[in-house]
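dude i think i finally got it to work??
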Amino acid sequence: MKKTLIALLLLVLFGGGHYLYQRLVYAELPREIRQLDQTISRENEKLIAAQIIAGELQQVTQLIEGNLALSLKDSLAEDASMPFMDYMTDLLQEMDVRLVRIQPGQRVNMADYIKTPYILDVETSYANMVDFLNRIEKSDRLVTVGEFELSNSVKRSEESVKRGDIDRRPLAITISTLTLLKHR
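look at this
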C-alpha cells in the first residue's frame, strides 16, 4: 500500500509539475511564435506591396521619359508625329481594322504638355475596336480617347451585308497624344 501511495503521490507531483510547466513556461512560447509569425506576415505584405509599387514606378518613369519633349521644337511635339501614325496604321492593319481616313488635328499647347488630336474613321467589329483601343492605350505614347462615335444606320448595314462584312461597323474615333514639356 505504501508503494501505491508513493507512486500515486509521485504521479500527482509529476502531473502537477507537467501542468504548471505547460501553463507557465511552455504556453508563452507558442503565443510569442504566433505573434512573430503575424509580424512576419505583415512585413512580407508590406515588402510585396513595395516591390509592386517600385515596378510600377519604373514603368511610369519610362513612360514619362518616352513622352518628354525638351522644347516645342522637339520631334515629339510636332503636329502629326509620323512614327506614331506609322505605329497606329500598322496596328490597325494587324488588328484587321479597315482605315478609311486618318486626320491629325491642330495641336493644343498647355502649360505642361501638348495635346495632339487624331481623327480616325474606321470600319471594324466591336471586338477588334476594343482590342485596338486597349493596345493603343498601352503603347509607349501617352494616349487618351476623346470621342467615340458609332454610325449604325440601316442603309449602311444593308451595304455591309452585300459586301459580306456583317460585323463591320463604321466608327469615328478621336484620340490624342500627350507630349510632356520639360521646364528649365
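The domain at 75-181 is CATH 3.30.70.60 (Alpha-Beta Plaits).
im so relieved honestly
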